[in-house]
């Protein structure tokens, strides 16, 4: 979505970022003492680079995720993935998945549909490209490291969402019904037109919950 920007433009926009303060996890106003979900991935550690396979420079499939700590009373789960460093007023939405069951504890690789894969039959909302798919990371060349926030929310209800709910629709239900949350950050950087890989970083290892 942003990879075609010239590197000089990316460098000029380095200070222009939506900000992690503006992702759903940090703007929802979650109640103090709310339960915490441990959200992790076998593909990358928290705050470490995502393998190119999951970006626009690779196959562009969604990464595997797993979680623990779902409390009693949960009726459904919602996943939202946003780019906290996009050079836009608000974070870019890369994926929305609603209607996950309380018994679910993972999403396998490529579970979210992408441009050329059907996915696992999930109820998927619209990303910032207005498509009900996984929008693979593709930060502008020269813009620096982008932080992609994988945000999981547990709800005390099963909201009736539209066929392809957008961020605002989902946010409203989370505001009223979220009782637990978890956060995992994956990073990505594109230098001189290609995804930058930091040797020795981002390999599977001890995974911290967000």
Describe this structure in words.
The chain is mostly beta strands and 210 residues long. Helices cover 10% and strands 27% of the residues. Strand 5 and strand 6 form a beta hairpin. The C terminus is likely disordered.
Features:
210 residues; mainly beta; Phosphatidylethanolamine-binding Protein; 3 helices; 10% helix; 27% strand; disordered C terminus
Task: Map the helices and strands.
Blueprint: H1 7-12, H2 24-27, E1 35-36, E2 38-40, E3 48-49, E4 65-68, E5 76-83, E6 92-100, E7 106-107, E8 123-124, E9 146-155, H3 167-177, E10 178-188, E11 190-191, E12 194-195
Parallel strand pairs: 1-10, 3-10
Antiparallel strand pairs: 2-4, 4-7, 5-6, 5-9, 6-8, 9-10, 11-12
What number of domains?
1
| Helix and strand sequence | HHEEEEEEEEEHEEE
Mean pLDDT across residues = 86
Give the fraction of residues assigned to helices.
Answer: 10-25%
Classification by helices and strands:
mainly beta
Radius of gyration equals: 16 Å
CATH topology: Phosphatidylethanolamine-binding Protein
Can you tell me the CATH class?
Answer: Alpha Beta
Major sheet: size, sense and barrel closure? 7 strands, mixed
Q: What is the first-to-last residue Cα distance?
A: 26 Å
Architecture in CATH?
Alpha-Beta Complex
Low-confidence stretches: 199-210
The amount of beta strand, in percent, is 25-35%
In CATH, the homologous superfamily goes by the name: PEBP-like
How many E-type strands?
Answer: 12
Categorize the overall geometry: globular
Number of helices: 3
């Amino acid at each position: 979505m942003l990879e075609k920007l010239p590197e000089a433009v990316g460098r000029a926009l380095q200070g222009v970022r939506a900000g992690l303060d503006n992702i759903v996890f940090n703007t929802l106003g979650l109640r103090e003492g709310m339960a915490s979900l441990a959200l992790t991935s076998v593909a990358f550690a928290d705050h470490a680079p995502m393998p190119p396979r999951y970006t626009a420079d690779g196959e562009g499939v969604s990464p595997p995720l797993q979680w623990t700590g779902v409390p009693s009373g949960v009726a459904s789960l919602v996943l939202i993935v946003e780019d906290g460093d996009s050079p836009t007023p608000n974070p870019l939405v890369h994926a929305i998945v609603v209607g996950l069951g309380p018994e679910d504890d993972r999403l396998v690789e490529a579970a979210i549909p992408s441009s050329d894969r059907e996915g696992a039959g999930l109820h998927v909302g619209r990303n910032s490209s207005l498509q009900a798919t996984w929008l693979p990371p593709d930060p502008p060349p020269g813009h620096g490291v982008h932080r992609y926030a994988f945000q999981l929310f547990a709800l005390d209800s099963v909201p009736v969402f539209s066929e392809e709910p957008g961020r605002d629709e989902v946010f409203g239900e989370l505001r009223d019904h979220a009782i637990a949350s978890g956060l995992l950050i994956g990073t990505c950087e594109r230098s001189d037109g290609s995804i930058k890989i930091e040797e020795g970083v981002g390999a599977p290892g001890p995974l911290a919950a967000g």
